[in-house]
Amino acid sequence: MMNESLKAFLALNQAITLIHSNDNQSLELKQSATDLSQSIQLCTDEMRQSAVKLEQLLKNCHQDLDYAEEVWNSKARILSIPKDEIWEQIAQISNVDVRIRNLRKKCKIEVVKELKQSWTNRVTQLKRQWFTEKNTGKPKQEAGLSDKDGLIKGLERELIDQNRQIILAIHHNLELLGQDFSVFKINQLDSHVSCLPSKYKNSLLFQINHYHYKLNLFFNAKVAISNSLANSTKPSWDSFYKDSFLVIKRDRLDEFSITVLLFIESSFLQRLDECFDLAISTLMFHLTFYNDLLEKQNRYQQEMPQKWQAEKQSLDQLRSQIDKVQAEIDTILNSISKS
To answer: Which of 66, 228, 248, 338 has the most CB within a 10 Å radius?
Structure first.
């Protein structure tokens, strides 16, 4: 359509040129031809601008078709991956996933129980020291003015020591998690990902690298929990300290101890949960990749060679049509620039 219009405009320009070159034509006709030439110029300028814009838009068509051909070519590469390798990776991921979930369960039950028992033992020791009658050895319900400062300082030391124990437990379990995760070998992953079309491959590699970068931060940074136990329990500590102006009641210490036990569980599990969640998400991401790869292999194996050939012919036809449009655009741009 545009080429037909271009031919018409070029023919008009030739006719106008003949009018201007003919000395027998009147001045009025030549002036009319000049006016018409200016109007035609506006039309051809508009046509050139449209052709330039269309050429830019056509680049997207080329890119889409290039990717479609790349997807078609990737089918043979995906089928070339030994199925045993895929199943081996799936089994390995599943095995690591079970180990990590078992470790998480152990942390939530056994390790938390050990930490809470440790704090309970610390408080019991403080009670023996400060809530026992020196003469009779019998328990008492209050620590008097002479004992209050010693109990407060002892409790502060126990909070610091307990916080240190929590940090050590976090680091130890992160090391165990790192050891379990290291069983998952991804040495074959690069060769498997390289079989995919570039757009999908680049996105996949970016996500994989992001996952492993974040995991390495957890495994190697050795970062302690964000808030110490003393900071986490500060409101309760301030209330406890205020109530202990003259004497410290035994049941008030018990109340504060219960608050500490709650924060021990939450602070420990929160930090580890972040890493466990990330590790499991990383494994599930890889598992999804291999399940998708397996699904593609099964589907491609069921496709007949005739279907592949028909798809290739369709792509070639689309390429031919786009090339034809490009040739027409080139003709318009070249012709107008010369006219």
So the answer is: 248
Helix, strand, coil percentages for the chain (3-state, nearest 5): 85, 0, 15
Of 132, 135, 140, nearest in space to 249 by CA: 140
Q: Give which of 316, 333, 321 is closest to 56, Cα–Cα.
A: 333
Residue 268 neighbours by CB distance under 10 Å: 24
Q: How far is CA 107 from the centre of its chain?
A: 27
Q: Please give the model's pTM, rounded to 2 decimal places.
A: 0.71
Q: How many CA atoms lie within 13 A of 146 on its CB side?
A: 3
The predicted pLDDT at position 119 comes to 95
Q: What percent of the chain has pLDDT over 70?
A: 89
- Residues 231-282: tens digit of each pLDDT: 888 888 888 888 777 788 889 999 999 999 998 888 778 878 888 999 999 9
DSSP character at residue 247: -
Dihedral (Cα; 22, 26, 29, 33), 10-degree rounding? 40
187 Cβ partners below 8 Å, 6+ apart?
A: none
Sequence spans of domains, the chain: 2-75+324-338, 82-302
Q: DSSP string covering 155-177, please?
A: HHHHHHHHHHHHHHHHHHHHHHH
What's the confidence (pLDDT) of residue 167?
A: 86
**Structural element, H or E, at residue 274:** helix 250-302
What number of residues does the chain have?
339
Q: Beta-carbon neighbour count of residue 229 at 10 Å?
A: 25
- CB-based contact 151:125 (threshold 8 Å): no
Cα 202-207-208 angle, rounded to 5 deg: 95
Q: Which helix (H) or strand (E) holds 197?
A: none
Supply the pLDDT for residue 30: 67
DSSP SS3 for 81: coil
